[in-house]
Amino acid sequence: MSQKRTFYITTPIYYVNDKPHIGHAYTTVACDTLARFMRLDGVDVRFLTGTDEHGQKVEKSAAAAGLSPQAFTDKVSQNFRDLAARMKFSNDDFIRTTEPRHEAATQALWKRLEERGHIYLGGYQGWYSVRDEAFFTETELTKGPNGEKLAPTGAPVEWVEEPSYFFRLSAWQEPLLKFYEENPGFIMPTARRNEVLSFVKGGLQDLSISRTSFKWGIPVPGNPDHIMYVWLDALTNYITALGFPDENAVLYREFWPADLHMVGKDILRFHAVYWPAFLMAAGLQPPKRVFAHGWWTNEGQKISKSLGNVIDPYDLIEEFGLDQTRYFLLREVPFGSDGDFSRRAMIQRKNSELANDYGNLCQRVLSMIGKNCGAAVPQPGAFADDDAEMLKQAGDLLGKVRDALADQAFHEALERIWMVIRAANAYIDRQAPWTLRKTDPARMGTVLYVLAETIRRIAILTQPFMPDASAAILDQVAVPADARSFAALERPLTAGTPLPPPQGVFPRHVETEEAPS
Ligand code: MSP
Which DSSP symbol is given to 227? Predict the structure, then answer.
């Protein structure tokens, strides 16, 4: 058996009731960055995303569009695949819950739960929110402006009374609390963990896991009048994609339990309470971590279709660039907190951090080398203290970025990288190679070598965040394709290697029209 470390990371599967927006892009950018980082770090990665295609919400959207649910989901699911291609997501698989492999896995999980006595038939009476696809108790509800009952998320609720199968969730309160205690890193960030703990400590009610009042879902084995609750169906995707119910499937053996389910804070309860309870009840291992990230607002306002302020990821990429968009999403907010999208902040980061800090560093160094060192990696002389210090800072960077990403602290990882970029800009100003050109050309060669080597290390580390720009920079310092992994960080540039003519990688943002106020 291979000893290679494995890493299984998943995005939520996205509802196909609508086209992709910034929230979907955000979760997947975060996962893609981690997946790329781990691959470069020599880890065997499996990265899964996909679409959640059943349930009342999708059925209603299909009807509104005048299409059959299947035709509708085929169309909308394709939008998510297109976005994945446009954003260069490196997912290894894309699952759709309408695929036969998924129906088989979900029914197998159901049967296991039933055989083990965790499911019983009863009747459900209570409130249901189609938008959340979730049940709520009377006490959880709030009142809207006209006195109407609303889910805690603000979504409308409807009264549901129908026969239903139940999962004995109430029996899992103590086992779950024990599991959380033994696995303190299971729910991140800590504030979210505390919310889940107090929810579970408050007592768990049995969970309704089937519906009879509509048809768009996976039939309950042995009783096709019932279809499965869309969350039981959806959560199972994470094991379907590894070959479940075949627990001997290669992928399942290698990658389950998942290392990280990345989710938004709104769907944490499903992943951190219901999902481990289902799995433990079925005799399967729960995932190792669920990370709940925050929500984006748009210029300070909640994003919603009715306000007409939904941010389309295609528009962002079109206007600001793909790498710039990926950078902004991961840099603007501490991962886990809520964040606000504003054009001003986006333009500010694009211009000052990407164009000025990173872009200018590369441009200044590479054009000096092009003009003064025969367009080849310069020959360094003995390193002075300042040179050694610069190289050490660049050399220490991988460990720092790795530590930050082990906690999903993307913003911190980027800040670490930028500390070195800023240090390199300060070093070039201090050493003034443009003056050395006349006074001490050999010394100029050493300084430019140190800088080119620093740029090489930085660009290797920015690959997971900004794949295209980083590749362009690595091309410009002539790093071969097989020398771009983290193991290759220790293969310094060879003096004399010819370099291509330098080209700007991070353009400044120029306003083409009046910015909307
Ligand atoms: N289908 C379920 C997930 C099932 S996983 C087994 C679902 N889908 S969703 O399409 O509604 O949402 C997917 C993700 O988008 C969630 O993680 C949610 O938090 C995220 N976002 C939706 N709007 C968002 C913002 N405005 N900001 C950040 N993320 C947001 O839930």
Answer: E
SS (HEC) of 19-80? CCCHHHHHHHHHHHHHHHHHHHCCCEEEEEEEEECCCHHHHHHHHHCCCCHHHHHHHHHHHH
Question: pLDDT, tens digit, for every residue of 430-450?
Answer: 999 999 999 999 999 999 999
Which residue has its alpha carbon closest to ligand 1 atom 30?
Answer: 23
For 141, phi then psi, to 5°, come to -75, 155
Model-level pTM greater than 0.90? yes
User: How buried is residue 515: exposed, middle or buried, by Cβ count under 10 Å (0-12/13-18/19+)?
Assistant: exposed
- What's the gap in Å between 23 CA and the centre of ligand 1? 6
Q: What is the pLDDT of residues 246-281, one digit of tens each?
A: 999 999 999 999 999 999 999 999 999 999 999 999
Domains of the chain by start residue, with CATH: 343-490 (1.10.730.10)
Give the per-residue SS3 of 277-343: HHHHHCCCCCCCCEEEECCEEECCEECCCCCCCCCCHHHHHHHHCHHHHHHHHHHCCCECECEEECH
Pocket of ligand 1 (CB under 6 A): 12-15, 23-24, 26-27, 52, 234-235, 237, 263-264, 266-267, 295-296, 303
Give distance in angstroms: CA of 166 to centre of ligand 1.
25
Report the alpha-carbon distance of residue 479 to residue 41 in Å, rounded: 17
CA–CA separation, 133 vs 54, rounded Å? 10
Residue of 15, 49, 260, 338 to mutate, ligand 1, most atoms within 8 A of C-beta: 15
